[in-house]
Every structure is written in C-alpha cells, then in structure tokens.
Amino acid sequence: MINEVKVFVPGHITGFFEIIQNANPLLKGSRGAGITLDEGVTTTCQVYEGNGKLNIGVNGKYDKFNTITRKTIDIITDRYGVNLEDYDININHELKLAIGAGFGTSASFALGVSCSLPSLLGVDITFKQAGEIAHLAEVSLSSGLGDVISEMYGGCVVRLKEGTPVNAIIDKIQITKPIYVITKTLGSLDTSTIIENPVHQMRINNSGSLLLNRLMKNPTIENFIKLSNTFSTNTQLINGQLDEIIQQLNEESIGASMAMLGNTAFALSYSPDTQVDNCQITRLNTSGIRFLE
Amino acid sequence: MINEVKVFVPGHITGFFEIIQNANPLLKGSRGAGITLDEGVTTTCQVYEGNGKLNIGVNGKYDKFNTITRKTIDIITDRYGVNLEDYDININHELKLAIGAGFGTSASFALGVSCSLPSLLGVDITFKQAGEIAHLAEVSLSSGLGDVISEMYGGCVVRLKEGTPVNAIIDKIQITKPIYVITKTLGSLDTSTIIENPVHQMRINNSGSLLLNRLMKNPTIENFIKLSNTFSTNTQLINGQLDEIIQQLNEESIGASMAMLGNTAFALSYSPDTQVDNCQITRLNTSGIRFLE
Q1: What is the pLDDT of residues B100-132, one digit of tens each?
Q2: How confident is the model at residue A2 (pLDDT cuts 50, 70, 90)?
Q3: A-chain residues near B175 (CB < 8 A)
Q4: Disulfide check for A41: which of A64, A108, B24, B264 has CB 3.0–4.6 Å away?
Q5: B150 touches chain A (CB under 8 A)
Q6: What domains are there in chain A, each with its CATH number?
Q7: In this predicted complex, what is the ipTM?
C-alpha cells in the first residue's frame, strides 16, 4: 500500500538532565544523557483522499485523548499549510512499554507521526525537520524535553546543547559490546508537574550540569550509570520502594538508577539475567529510528 | 575474547560536493550529499600486552601499505600519549567493495580503527571524538573530505557544514521504504590528485554549492540522484564509457550518476533488478556504524 508508512521509534530512559528554559520553544529543552531501548513504539500512518476523518489508536484501540499525537498533527498542518479536510488519516501506535513511566513514549508517539505523516501529505521534510516538529510538540505539552533527539539517533546519547534537533548538539558514549537494559516499573509520574515545579527544577539543574561535565571527562557506560545514580539521590525524586529495587539491581549489574522521569528502576548489564521479579529485559538500542517495510 | 572489538562501517558514495579549504585540518572538509551502503568494511581489532608488533591486514592478507590505517593509529597514539611498545596489535579489514572506486573505503578503514582501537588501549573517547580522528587521517592524506561523518550516521546524509564530526553539521533525507543501490565499477580514480587540482576544485565548487541549496529546498531521494547527475555533468569528471552505463541504469531506476570520486556508476532503485551486466547490488544502509558481537 503506497499511502502507508510504518516507523519504529525506540524508547528512551534519561539518566540525568538539566532543564534549559527559553521563551522561544525552538531553543527550550534540556541537556543530559540517557539510553535508548530495542523496545519502543511502532507507528503506522495511513493517509487516503477523504474528508477530514482522523483516527488515532494505541495498540489498536481508539484513543481520542492522545494529546501528543494531536499536537504533532497540528504543528505539521500549521507549518506546511495542509488542509486536513482533504484527507482521511489512520494513525496507530503499537507499544509494550508503560506510558508515563519514564520510557519517553510521548516523544516516540510524536516522532512516529512527524516522521511518517508529512511525506504522505506530499510535504517533503528532512530527518531533523521531522525531529523539530516532535520536539515542539513535546515542549508545548511539557511531556518531555530531551527524549526526541536521543530516540532519533539511538545509543547512549549525550545531549550537549539543548533545543530542537535542528539546533541541538549531541554526542554518544561508545558501546562496543551488547548491553541489556533491565527495568522494573512501579507506576507513573507526571513529567510536566515535576519539570514545571521550581523546587524540583533547582535541584535538577544544580546536579545535572555538574554530572554532564563529569561524563564527558570519562565517557564510558559504567560512568553514565554511576552518575545517573548520583543524580537520582541528589534530586530527591526517588522513593523508598524504588530505591530498594535499584539497590538490588545494582548488585547484579553494571549499575542501576531511576528513569527520569518515571517511577521506574533501570539497570544496565552485560547479561540478560536478574534475580528481581517481573522485570522487563531489552537490549540497548544503538541505531535509533528505523522505517519498517 | 575481551581484548577484541569488531565494527562494521558502511561504504559511502558521494553524489555531489563542495571542497572547503582551511589551514586548520579540524575545519577543512566538504559539504555535499551522499548515500551509505549495506556493503562496507568490517574491521577486527585485537590488542594484547606485548612489545610493539603491529599487523595490518586487508581480507586476511598482510598489507604494509595501508597508509590510512597507519595514519589513524599515529593520530591516536599522539593525541592520547599511548606507547605502542607495550602492546601487540592485529587489525584486519574485511570488504567486498573495490578500493579507490568511490565507495569511501579509506574512511571506513579509518573509522574501523578509530572506533575500536582506543578503548582496547584503555583510552575512552566518544563517538564524535572517534570520528574526528578518522576525519583527520582522511584530510591529512587527501583520501577523502566527507565520507567519515556520513558513514557514522548512515542514510542519505546531507553535509551542511564541513569539518570534523565534532564541528560539522549534517541532516538526512528521509527514506521511508527500502532502496537498492546498483553499482558498476570500471576502475579506480585517485581522490587526492583530483581534489588537490585547482581546475577540478573550481568546477566542483561552482556546481556543488548551488546543488546543496537545491537539495535542501526539495529534500527527496529522487531530487538527490537528479542533482548528483547534474554535478557529474557540470564537473566534467565523467568519461564516455561510464556515461553510457549511467544512461542505461538511469532508464530502469529512480536515477543514476557517478560515484564521487571513483570510476563507478551508481543507481538508486526500488527494485534490486537491472539489465546492466556485472553490477553489484546492495541495500541503502540507514543506520551507520554498527559494533558486532
């Protein structure tokens, strides 16, 4: 079917970060570091000639409250002057990751749409321009500040300069052998209530900026997870039950910390085994977004 | 074996480019656009405690004239103060692509070494720092000016700002469905004699800078190959025999042009079939460098 595009966008866990405020949404964002996962969101986008029907689903179920998908569509139509009344559109996001648990799923939803919908509407944009649209959707809803660019490139991404993927600067920690990501989710956290709270902002930024410098002086995956753990302590975002799981995971892996921002523990390991019950185990993704046949 | 790293670096074909001179090798490079291939170079690097033995092979055969590999090693040892007398090193590059035929193999050799050797010597560097070393090796030998960064990221890479991968800026043309690259090589061209020649430089730069702007205004794979074809005509680098093959390939594909710089025709196609004899057919790579287990 010529009028369908399918794209896999990896999930992303931020280890530590610093919020960079700016009145211009193109320049607002975050610096920090995180890892992407071989689990993520597969978005299927279908466009037909029609009269303005829009169907948004998650795992095949109609989801009219998927605000990030709607926001991304709005940005595309506004920027490129597309009249949606001429089309019928079906968008479905398939995922196994928990939503709101620190896996960057809102960014994956946004990128799934911004990478697939424009070309189906006859609008040709580049990879970074598609990323910019997704970043703007994220920033305007405060659902994320740095997941988009990391999910585009994959790996252990270090975000050195904030902003949309057109303006931002990244680097990557080299990962020369397979790494497993072991996660355990206790529930969700609302990203926007934390990143818009001044007390949280202060603690996050005081810790995040120092840690980024320390990672670049010693750019290894071992150091990344150690610094992430320091961040989770410094920012006081961690709770007792999660802390206990992180300590358990820490003993049997390269290291463990809290997913920023979600009520989720994550560990990095050279082996897919763990003694902790009911974990989700996936490979660390190293290649970012992938279009599917 | 803990002291071995194996990395696949895709080959790269430049469609059109512009040479940017600079006395500072960190800022010298090129702008332009090209595509990476699922064929490339697999570099295996082994490091042991030893007394300075260095073995460089290509397809398993000892190759003492592999200057790009030696240059890359020299840059690493100089930058990070490594004494090679303490180690024995084996490096082998496996490839099926022709060398000197416009497939960016020298950049693949350099990246294969710069992404694998440092960590084995206890030197931790980032992805872009490894790319910087490879770019410096390429520029100092005039064996290439832009292949390194394209091979790092994969896809149809547009090089918007020149320099090492730390300084440079890229974007990508979105490729939402599989594309095949059909190539036919008539022989080699020496990159350095062309890019150091003032007449060639002038023709290349006059054409290259205009085409880059035209690609960004209409960023599609169809436009990329059309503009590449225009470049091959404008620069007068193409010969009669190659031109004939390109015209044949052009009729049965999205479009065809000459690999810059090699005596090689390449076509992009949605199908892996061709009427032209003795072609090499590979998929367009979209994910760049990949470490192997």
Answers
A1: 999 999 999 999 999 999 999 999 999 999 999
A2: low
A3: 291
A4: A108
A5: no
A6: 4-172+288-292 (3.30.230.10), 174-283 (3.30.70.890)
A7: 0.94
